[in-house]
Amino acid sequence: MRYLHARARIYLVVACMLLGGVLSGAPALLAESNSTTTPRVRVGKTLTGAATVYPDLLNGHKTTSGETFHQTGHTAASNSIPLQSRVKVTNLENGKSTDVKVNDRGPKLGKHKIDLSKKAAHEIGLTAKQGKVPVAVQVTGAESHTTKASTAPERMVP
């Protein structure tokens, strides 16, 4: 009997969650958040927000783009900038800047716009101990992808 009551409670909770989601439009929001659309930030666009330092525990792990993350590289993570974009990150407190490639997604916190590798963070005067710093992030371009066809020499026509 006790098992039956516990099971009924679970069904009731799930039904309430589903009904509440349907009425509030949550399924539509979930579908949008799970989509694979690329953020729409164009070259030349500047975003402002906070920059943080990538956690040490992620060193050596695969990024969203499939590359291996290294704290010694000039890389970053951002949810609002397309992967493989090149960006210039400027510390708004001291004016120092660095160029990095966005190859991962994150950070997951509010107004934080970008997570920087330790090397990139050091170049703008940000330390892990400091935590975060206000920055301007300007999209300067996209990483070029060359193919064999585009690098092959042109054929001479007699």
Query: How many β strands by DSSP?
Result: 6
Q: What is the CATH superfamily label of the largest domain?
A: RlpA-like domain
Strand content: 25-35%
Structural class: alpha/beta
| Terminal CA distance | 91 Å
Widest sheet: strand order?
Answer: 1-5-2-4-3-6
Biggest β-sheet: count, sense, barrel?
A: 6 strands, mixed, barrel
Brief descriptors of the model:
single chain; 158 residues; alpha/beta; Barwin-like endoglucanases; 6-stranded mixed β-barrel; 4 helices; 26% helix; 27% strand; disordered C terminus
Give the topology.
Layout: H1 2-24, H2 26-33, E1 46-53, E2 75-77, E3 85-91, E4 97-104, E5 112-116, H3 118-123, E6 132-142, H4 148-151
Parallel strand pairs: 1-5, 2-4
Antiparallel strand pairs: 1-6, 2-5, 3-4, 3-6
Would you write up a description of this structure?
The chain has 2 domains: about 1-35; about 45-140, RlpA-like domain (Barwin-like endoglucanases, Beta Barrel), CATH 2.40.40. The chain contains 4 helices and 6 strands. The protein has helices at about 1-25, 25-35, 120-125, 150, and strands at about 45-55, 75, 85-90, 95-105, 110-115, 130-140. The chain has a 6-stranded mixed barrel. The radius of gyration is 22 Å and the shape is globular. Residues about 20-35 and about 145-158 have low confidence and may be disordered.
